């Protein structure tokens, strides 16, 4: 193995496929909402591994069950089932509209399964030509070829040859636009109740209720991609529970394993019945190690203490941002729900989010953007008051430095 000190940011450029542009420092250790890099510099973590680390880094309860399970059974394949997978499936069913669960390893895989299921259901239960999928501009559903094609940023799907067909995109939160394209050939409408990557844009109440009605009218399935908005992120276990609109299929990933890769697709008995043995599958999906961590994460997150704490932390973050804005006047608006928050830069700072992130890292703060003009906050759901205060002081400093550069 290479010596630690032989590994640095330059190594990345030498050995990695050049699809990311990671920050200049390399984190080596994390605890709660704090991280340390190779040089021992400390960071406050407002990024949370992109809405994954719902309980922060190395939560003791997750570490403990991971250690225990690692001495019992890691992997068994789906030729055999396992107790942790069945336990986690039951917990998800008890907590949601769902009656059936499929496990995979990433958000994209859960969505891939959802889209295949919707097509299969429409084709077998209705008509072979009922294959149209309606999706939204700015939507993000993952990077497999099907999911990236359903996503609403064409630049990510182009340049790879012929795309999966029969997908249409319309503006988000525009019910008339959905009404104009939906028809009896529509098999599914796919949306994020709160668009994450696309700019932290919550669906409006009228929009979600309207889309549900249109789906029912045309016998199309409604798929909610809650890969980012789910697992307590918005202060309810799933964001749909704020809207009182039930999907037919829901996908969940990111925070589901608290940092351990796992995803799930949830649906009803009637829809699940469109799939038979052999119709879909995965080698790692539902492995005991991931499901054990998922169970422990869900047991902690799906409690009034944690979920109610999200709302309190939301208010703290917004108040701190408002204070920063009073000083520097750089924000146009704040939006989002719970701890999925977007701070939209004013028009004159358009395209500058990355520069602010760089300054923030220098000040010891890890932060995300959504697009190039929105700062995105997706910290741990149990980040402490002190950590929020400290992180916001560093953000204040970063913005001050950046403006005076
Ligand atoms: C992150 C994300 C995905 C993709 O998940 P991966 O685990 O990267 O495949 C899909 N949908 C939404 C809404 C996401 O935020």
From TrEMBL:
Pyridoxal 5'-phosphate binds at residues 107-108, 140, 225-228, 283. Keywords: Amino-acid biosynthesis, Aminotransferase, Arginine biosynthesis, Cytoplasm, Lysine biosynthesis, Pyridoxal phosphate, Transferase. N(2)-acetyl-L-ornithine binds at residues 143, 282. It catalyses: N-succinyl-(2S,6S)-2,6-diaminopimelate + 2-oxoglutarate = (S)-2-succinylamino-6-oxoheptanedioate + L-glutamate; N(2)-acetyl-L-ornithine + 2-oxoglutarate = N-acetyl-L-glutamate 5-semialdehyde + L-glutamate. It comes from the Bacteria. Pathway: Amino-acid biosynthesis; L-lysine biosynthesis via DAP pathway; LL-2,6-diaminopimelate from (S)-tetrahydrodipicolinate (succinylase route): step 2/3; Amino-acid biosynthesis; L-arginine biosynthesis; N(2)-acetyl-L-ornithine from L-glutamate: step 4/4. SUPFAM superfamilies: PLP-dependent transferases. Signal peptide: none annotated. Its EC number is 2.6.1.11, 2.6.1.17. Binds 1 pyridoxal phosphate per subunit. Its cofactor is pyridoxal 5'-phosphate. PROSITE patterns: AA_TRANSFER_CLASS_3. This is Acetylornithine/succinyldiaminopimelate aminotransferase. It comes from Xenorhabdus anantnagensis. The lineage of its organism: Bacteria, Pseudomonadati, Pseudomonadota, Gammaproteobacteria, Enterobacterales.
């Amino acid at each position: 193995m290479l010596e630690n000190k032989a590994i640095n940011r330059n190594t990345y450029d030498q050995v990695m496929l050049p699809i990311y542009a990671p920050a200049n420092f390399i984190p080596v250790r994390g605890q709660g909402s704090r991280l340390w890099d190779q040089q021992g510099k400390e960071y406050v973590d407002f990024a949370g591994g992109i809405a994954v680390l719902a309980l922060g880094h190395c939560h003791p309860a997750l570490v403990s069950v991971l250690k225990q399970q690692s001495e019992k059974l890691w992997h068994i394949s789906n030729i055999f089932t396992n107790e942790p997978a069945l336990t986690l499936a039951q917990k998800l069913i008890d907590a949601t509209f769902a009656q059936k669960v499929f496990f995979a390893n990433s958000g994209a895989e859960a969505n891939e399964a959802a889209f295949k299921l919707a097509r299969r259901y429409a084709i077998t239960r209705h008509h072979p030509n009922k294959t149209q999928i309606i999706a939204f501009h700015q939507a993000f559903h993952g990077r497999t070829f099907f999911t990236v094609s359903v996503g609403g940023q064409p630049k990510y799907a182009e340049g790879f040859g012929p795309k999966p067909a029969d997908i249409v995109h319309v503006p988000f939160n525009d019910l008339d636009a959905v009404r104009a394209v939906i028809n009896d050939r529509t098999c599914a409408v796919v949306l994020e109740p709160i668009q994450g990557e696309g700019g932290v844009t919550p669906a409006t109440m009228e929009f979600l209720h309207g889309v549900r009605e249109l789906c029912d009218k045309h016998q199309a399935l409604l798929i909610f991609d809650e890969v980012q908005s789910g697992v307590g992120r918005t202060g309810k276990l799933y964001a749909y529970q704020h809207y009182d609109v039930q999907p037919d299929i829901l996908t969940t990933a990111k925070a589901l394993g608290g940092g351990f890769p796992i995803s799930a697709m949830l649906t009803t008995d009637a829809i699940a019945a469109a799939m038979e043995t052999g119709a879909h599958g995965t080698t790692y999906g539902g492995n005991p190690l991931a499901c054990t961590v998922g169970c422990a994460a869900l047991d902690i997150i799906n409690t009034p203490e944690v979920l109610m704490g999200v709302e309190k932390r939301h208010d703290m973050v917004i108040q701190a941002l408002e204070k920063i804005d009073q000083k520097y006047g750089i924000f146009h608006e704040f939006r989002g729900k719970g701890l999925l928050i977007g701070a939209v830069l004013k028009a004159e700072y358009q395209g500058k989010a990355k520069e602010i992130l760089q300054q923030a890292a220098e000040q010891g703060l890890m932060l995300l953007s959504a697009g190039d003009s929105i700062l995105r906050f997706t910290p741990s759901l149990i980040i402490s008051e002190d950590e929020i205060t400290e992180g916001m002081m560093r953000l204040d400093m970063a913005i001050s430095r950046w403006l005076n550069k």
